[in-house]
Specification:
- The chain is of the alpha+beta class.
- The protein is built from 9 helices and 25 strands.
- The strands form 5 sheets. The protein has a 6-stranded mixed β-sheet, with helices on both faces. The chain has a 5-stranded mixed β-sheet with strand order 11-13-9-7-15, with no helix packed on it. The chain has a 5-stranded mixed β-sheet with strand order 8-16-14-10-12, with no helix packed on it.
- Strand 23 and strand 24 form a beta hairpin.
- The chain is rod-shaped.
């Protein structure tokens, strides 16, 4: 029994272990793709440089190497030769190099492309000039002349390597390190800097001399690199190359600074919301020529359609390549305000397009220490970009109901008028000459109007009723029109009260009002409706 219990417990444990392993495997399979796609590595500075194609962008380097006698000490000149090789290898093959050596005089050793490196290094003399002087002024003059005559590239650098102070030979154009000749060099450098990005890099090869700093008095944008020893020379020359690369990038990106993304409506110019949501289009365009731009949280609204319209942009995040455009869909849902008119009608408004979204560039961070792209954080909308939106609003029942109510009102008014001015008649009307004992004509009053054609007295006429209110009572008067010969010219009118008499054109009219229920009577001869 103990053995069976152990086997059962072992089987349960093994099953649980298998289940846990299966769940763990499934979790790994599910989570691994998500993790892989969620992580989007930002570009490095090298990636940006590669995308800019800096290797294809040329730069001018003028390298001034001191070959005075003092360079032979402590193997300094040999170290410079070997270090210069790595410096040249760090340049782009499309860069242009002018290599000068200087002592009492300045001599061009190589002028041409930065490749092959061996050819450039081999152009240097094997040893420094024994007892040679150091004329830094003449060397700088040669560097500026080279840049002036060769048509410098967008980026130019003057690299000065010297171990001594300015100590020219007699008869030098630059006997001192100040004065008019140096001012003239400075003005020439300023003129060059107006058309090219000109910088200087000065490397004093000994810590106890300051001649290299003279480069800064000619080229204002000069960096004095101060290595602690000759062993640091390679790293400092590499800094000059790296800074030149940065200046290349800055030159290329100068046109992108302050640019960003513009948005314009490219959907139909007229949208009709009557049958439900409609879809439009917005085209976003990058104004940058080199840097990619990313838009997040993209939204859209139409100013002028009221608060009941909603715009949804799909997708709300996108990345634009330099100078590229991309179109996104915009779903417009909602309704326009009906205004004061509840009847079925069409509302038509012209709404201003407003675009929201945050613009960034993945290049901004790796270039932050070199170039501030100053990408506008908001999407810019084209000025005057409007969209016409229409919708049939209001109830279709308003006009029919209003018409029916108007007809009903007219009908009620007509019935009220008819009841007052044309009530149904009852009773009898007696007609006889005003003078004489002729038997009267008796006409039964029925309907709303009675035409008179009395046989006894002759003539023509008509009778209708009119309700009156007097002394708190209501009565029905007769309005009698009568002409003795039937012509309109001799027609006269009179009003007769119930049980009263009136004389019209010599005929006496007697109105016998009903005193109780009166049945319909046969109309005697002489009366017609």
């Amino acid at each position: 029994m103990i053995a069976d219990a152990l086997r059962t417990r072992y089987g349960v444990a093994r099953g649980a272990a298998r289940l846990c392993a299966a769940l763990l495997t499934a979790a790994v399979l599910v989570l691994t793709p998500v993790t892989a796609t969620a992580q989007d590595d930002p570009p490095t500075r090298a990636d940006v440089y590669g995308a800019l194609g800096l290797a294809e962008q040329s730069a001018d380097y003028v390298v001034l190497v001191d070959v005075s006698g003092s360079m032979a000490k402590d193997g300094l000149y040999d170290s410079v030769r070997s270090t210069l090789r790595s410096f040249l290898q760090g340049m782009s093959p499309r860069d242009h190099v002018a290599l000068f050596t200087f002592d009492a005089k300045t001599q061009p050793r190589y002028v041409g492309p930065a490749r092959p490196v061996d050819k450039i290094v081999a152009a240097l003399p094997d040893t420094p000039t024994p007892g040679g002087d150091t004329d830094i002024g003449e060397a700088l003059n040669s560097a500026l002349t080279q840049l002036e005559t060769s048509g410098s590239a967008p980026v130019a650098s003057v690299v000065l390597l010297t171990d001594g102070e300015h100590a020219p030979a007699d008869g030098s154009h630059y006997p001192k390190n100040t004065g008019a000749p140096w001012d003239a060099l400075h003005r020439r450098a300023q003129a060059l800097a107006k058309g090219t990005d000109l910088s200087g890099y000065a490397l004093p090869l000994r810590t106890d001399v300051t001649g290299a700093a003279l480069l800064g008095t000619v080229v204002p944008a000069t960096t004095v690199l101060k290595p602690d020893g000759i062993g640091d020379l390679r790293g400092y020359l590499a800094q000059a190359t790296a800074r030149t690369q940065a200046r290349k990038a800055a030159t290329l990106l100068a046109g992108d600074i302050g640019k960003g993304v513009t948005a314009a409506w490219t959907g139909p110019p007229q949208l009709d919301l009557t049958d439900g949501p409609v879809t439009g289009r917005i085209t976003l365009t990058s104004a940058d020529r080199h840097a990619p731009l990313t838009v997040t949280g993209l939204t859209a609204s139409l100013d002028g359609t009221g608060s009941d319209t909603e715009l949804t942009v799909t997708p709300d995040r996108l990345t634009l390549k330099p100078g590229a455009s991309q179109t996104v869909d915009v779903r417009i849902d909602g309704s326009l305000p009906a205004g004061w008119n509840p009847a079925r009608h069409t509302e038509d408004v012209e709404a201003a397009l407003e675009i929201g979204g945050t613009v960034t560039s993945t290049w901004a961070k790796p270039l932050a220490s070199q170039v501030d792209l100053r990408v506008p954080a908001r999407v810019r909308t084209t000025d005057g970009d409007t969209v016409r939106v229409s919708q049939t609003v209001g109830s279709p029942l308003v006009l029919p109901v209003a018409a029916a109510l108007a007809v009903l009102a007219v009908l009620v008014l007509w019935l009220r008028w008819l009841r007052t001015n044309r009530p149904r008649l009852h009773g009898d009307l007696l007609l006889q000459p005003a003078f004489g004992q002729q038997i009267p004509d008796q006409i039964a009053l029925r309907g709303r109007r009675v035409r008179l054609r009395p046989a006894g007295v002759g003539g023509r006429g008509r009778v209708h009723g009119r309700r009156q209110r007097a002394d708190g009572e209501r009565r029905l008067d007769l309005v009698i029109s009568y002409s003795p010969d039937g012509t309109a010219g001799r027609t006269s009118d009179a009003t007769c009260r119930p049980d009263g008499q009136v004389v019209v054109n010599g005929v006496t009219f007697t109105y016998r009002a009903p005193t109780g229920g009166i049945g319909r009577q046969r109309r005697p001869k002489g009366a017609e409706r």
